[in-house]
Amino acid sequence: MERIIEGTIIYGDEFEPIDGQIIIEDGTIKNIEECAVATDTIIAPCFVNAHTHIGDSVIKDPPYLPLEELVQPPHGLKHRILQETPKSSLVTSMKATIEDMIKTGTCAFSDFREGGLEGVSALKEALNDTEIDGKIFGRPVGKDISYLDVCDGTGLSSTGDIDMEYLKYVVERTRNKGKKFAIHAGEKDPSDITSAIELEPDHLIHLTHAENRDIKSISDAGFPVAVCLRSNYITRSGIPPIKKMLDEGIIVAAGTDNVMLNSVNMFSEMEFLSKTNIYDDRQVFMLCTLNGAKLLGIDNEIGSIEKGKKARLMILTKKSNNLNGIRNPLSSLVRRGRPDDIIGII
Predict the structure, then answer these.
(1) E strands of the chain, at which residues?
(2) Is 19 within 8 Å of 35 (Cβ atoms)?
(3) 227/329 same-domain check
């Protein structure tokens, strides 16, 4: 079945605003035609949230504590609460977060899921009957790595939290299964960055304290990086050197990190990025869409509006009180866009 939508299209990998029509057939962009149309709407690619922990949707108002006390395994506040939470409650809270992602314009996300096989199965259950693309990176419980049979890979907290020999074993088993491996590094300090790089991950997370030599090593190795600015800010971890990473050619994508610290609203992440760190609207939008898709290896399917890609689109109105009178659709989306500007999601 064919469907035609029209408006100002944030088009292609360069996110150039053009007026025109998008022809959609069977969920795929069949064609894009530049032409004169009514331009009360903006059509933009949906967000890709490059790093989340949605298991802690069960605690959304934690006390202000140092990073280690909040999230460090195995005794951080988050881990204690997850251990006490029945699976049914965990699934319900994650379902609500997934619905929140969908309604706020996110079509794909990557989650580090604690709790081994049981934790992964809880997230898979929460994803049932949804259209969002959830990439799940599981984590071992003790010596049990059976989670690898049912998820996309392994996602670990830090090389400092796990015995290195066992960590290398987990990475080897992950690779043998044909799955991906990712790891946090440089969030609290730079001490775990070199050891994380040596494991040759598919991508790294945070790098808040990355130094020039680390950035050069990551660039030379071609590892993408997910940054989580709002999360790093609230935990007082610092601000990652994003511009230096981008200048070195690293693919940098944005994530919202722990639900207990932040909402999964990518508009908020995008605005924070644009007003604190990167004064380039096109670059910010790329971090929140196409670069997230590249980091997850799905940029041939989503992340930008191009012929042949899946139709994962958000339609926003220029007539909202917030966007009324805008002149630059891309800049306005990045700096001031909100979920209530959305009038439709495909």
Answers:
(1) 2-11, 16-25, 28-34, 41-45, 47-53, 106-112, 133-138, 153-156, 180-185, 203-206, 225-227, 252-254, 257-258, 313-317, 342-345
(2) yes
(3) no
Q: Per residue in 173-208, pLDDT tens?
A: 999 999 999 999 999 999 999 999 999 999 999 999
- Residue pair 136/151 in contact (Cβ under 8 Å)? The answer is yes
User: Rg of the chain's alpha carbons, rounded to an integer?
Assistant: 20
Structural domain including 172 reads 55-296
8-state DSSP, 292: H
Q: Is the alpha carbon torsion for 98, 137, 135, 210 positive or negative?
A: positive
Considering the domain architecture, whether residues 328 and 190 belong to the same structural domain is answered as no
**CATH number for position 36:** 2.30.40.10
What are the residues whose beta carbons fall under 8 Å from the beta carbon of 206, sequence distance 6 or more? Answer: 184, 185, 186, 187, 226, 227, 228, 232, 237, 240
**Same domain for 241 and 288:** yes
Q: Contact 266/47 with Cβ under 8 angstroms?
A: yes
| Residues 126 and 201 both lie in one domain | yes
Residues 261, 231, 109, 117: what is their CA dihedral angle, to the nearest 10 degrees? -60
Which of these, 121, 208, 124, lies nearest to 158 by C-alpha position?
208
Tens digits of residue pLDDT in 38-94: 789 999 999 999 999 999 898 888 778 777 777 777 778 777 887 888 888 899 999
Measured distance CA(9)–CA(20) in Å, rounded: 7
pLDDT given for residue 62 in this prediction: 78
